[in-house]
Amino acid sequence: MSSPSIYLAVIGVGGVGTCFLSQVSSLPSRLRPTLIFLSRSSKQLYNTSYSPVSPSDLQSSTSKLLSIPDELVTYLSSAPGKVILVDNTSSQDVANAYPSFLKKGISVVTPNKKAFSGSLQLWNDIFSAVEQANGKAMVYHESSVGAGLPVISTLKDLVATGDQVTRIEGVFSGTMSFLFNSFAPVDGTGNGKWSEIVKQAKEAGYTEPDPRDDLNGMDVARKLTILARLAGLKVQGPDSFPVQSLIPKELESAKSSEDFMAQLPKFDEQMESYKSQAAAQNKVVRYVGSVDVGKGEVKVGLEMVEKGSPIAGLKGSDNLICFYTKRYGANPLVIQGAGAGGEVTAMGVTADLIKVVERLG
Amino acid sequence: MSSPSIYLAVIGVGGVGTCFLSQVSSLPSRLRPTLIFLSRSSKQLYNTSYSPVSPSDLQSSTSKLLSIPDELVTYLSSAPGKVILVDNTSSQDVANAYPSFLKKGISVVTPNKKAFSGSLQLWNDIFSAVEQANGKAMVYHESSVGAGLPVISTLKDLVATGDQVTRIEGVFSGTMSFLFNSFAPVDGTGNGKWSEIVKQAKEAGYTEPDPRDDLNGMDVARKLTILARLAGLKVQGPDSFPVQSLIPKELESAKSSEDFMAQLPKFDEQMESYKSQAAAQNKVVRYVGSVDVGKGEVKVGLEMVEKGSPIAGLKGSDNLICFYTKRYGANPLVIQGAGAGGEVTAMGVTADLIKVVERLG
């Protein structure tokens, strides 16, 4: 069966969504499902005859908005074929609706971390819906950790084939990677004070519009939650384990991003002290996440790492993920590369889409 | 549909095959196909009613030997369900038969490099059979490069989603990695003369029984052939591009492995000279394979690499594979870890088996 009988619904046409639609349009027809629903903020594009829609018509669409999930589930589950929903948002509301889609046989592909790092109840609801669907509906979320890097698929393969994952460790944020590779490079130099580096990174677009959304560590905590759960730990959520925020306590009440940035230089000394403590031990300071599967411990925060270690040697805004397992022994399986960006995130989504099409086809 | 209606035939029960059978026996029943054929050298185990066979009965089996491929294809294509053939040998003959199996709707999963690094004709025959099968028979071969490391799947995802792979580079042999990490570590020391290190590696089981099978570079050349073809190059075979053998010309006629090892110390000076040439440039010597996709160039041999580079910093017998692509830009997507060993090779095979079961199920 070729893919024209498989239907595609896409929510979200921001940076990742735009790259994704472009990548999908270049797939060979046997792997390219028929786009029947597309939405962004307050616009939706679809028709009741399930004929293909074109992304270029979204802006001018006057379609009545379907409620998500109820009306969208109803619309998609009446499609004359199997349906894949791609959620390119970072919305918790859309994530909460995955079980409703899956229960109706609609597969889900997404880079959205919220579904897998939210409540353990939602996680359980999603994966029990997948199990009950018995191969008719599935969920793929490679890009929820490390963008297109093969992180989720590798961890799943390790677990599924019976390896024992003992420890997962790495740098899981492109922003944190960039900040620390600039602030405390291995050669002992540095590109300035901490607050200056944060400022430069913000101006260069390496941080979220409000850098506090990176510095609070929650993005990394969400990724660790996902990996820890895949490795078998029943983690309640990203706030159920120690996460070191790099927002100084005194600045937690800063009213705006600007206010925060203006006051940040007052705390440069504190970061400088971490840097020199590390240097005194011939180490460098990095923002590291780790899961100790045996002890059931997850943590995120600053660590002093050996100068010769792969984490210390990272370049630019690269991520690095080490899987220590029984089979791999002392030397971990390591995956490294860009862990953010529209094209590489979309690549993980498109590759997942292909896998679902191949399984449904 | 659950997997008891999917059937499994396994050829080869050596190191990898034994680990594979053990891993498969631990899979949940929905992912575990029914074993109906098992063979090693001059023994085969099967029955005409296609009822399950048990690996422990192989040694005492008195089944009439089926010819491969003809009689085995006939036997398997009459099974009352879909069939997956797992080839855990390194046999060229078995590899040559893949198109015959695929044409009859029998999927193939294998770590055997021979099918994908042999003649371009065989490669084309295999992949045109897969295309004609239109999703009913497929071929997966993750462990043909880097054992269980996600090398093949990552490269396929990059290509399938439309990225442009510009360069592939790395250390593709656990043996070569071990030899050079011992001979010329980054700290400038070393564990002795080249011939002594080869001898120690042989005694520790890090080389093939005859170390010349590693030192001739053909294993690496085969892996590069596979990667280059997946990246789109029409490579004729592993002898169609420059491969530097580390067997000195004068020793090519050595009559035996023992004879070779006895004479190797005469050439220590040559390797020592490479080492000091590299050191003079603040580099180290490594055995590297690379594919330049744009130029259509593949090569394998000694290279002087920067001390700070990931290749120079490898430990033990780890492999390292860098994918440079348009989307990943200046910093490659890197995969690193053990690239040989029974359990990790079998893991790649088992993970592939699961994917095929999921697609057929």
Automatic annotation (TrEMBL), chains A, B:
PROSITE patterns: HOMOSER_DHGENASE. The active site is at residue 223. The keyword rRNA-binding does not apply. It catalyses: L-homoserine + NADP(+) = L-aspartate 4-semialdehyde + NADPH + H(+). Pathway: Amino-acid biosynthesis; L-threonine biosynthesis; L-threonine from L-aspartate: step 3/5; Amino-acid biosynthesis; L-methionine biosynthesis via de novo pathway; L-homoserine from L-aspartate: step 3/3. SUPFAM superfamilies: Glyceraldehyde-3-phosphate dehydrogenase-like, C-terminal domain, NAD(P)-binding Rossmann-fold domains. Residues 150-354 form the Homoserine dehydrogenase catalytic domain. One of its GO terms (molecular function) is homoserine dehydrogenase activity. Its EC number is 1.1.1.3. NADP(+) binds at residues 12-17. It comes from the Eukaryota. Its cofactor is a metal cation. NADPH binds at residues 89, 113. It is an enzyme of class 1 (oxidoreductase). Catalyzes the conversion of L-aspartate-beta-semialdehyde (L-Asa) to L-homoserine (L-Hse), the third step in the biosynthesis of amino acids that derive from aspartate (the aspartate family of amino acids), including methioinine and threonine, the latter of which is a precursor to isoleucine; production of homoserine leads to a branch-point in the pathway as it can either be O-phosphorylated for processing to threonine, or O-acylated for processing to methionine. This is Homoserine dehydrogenase.
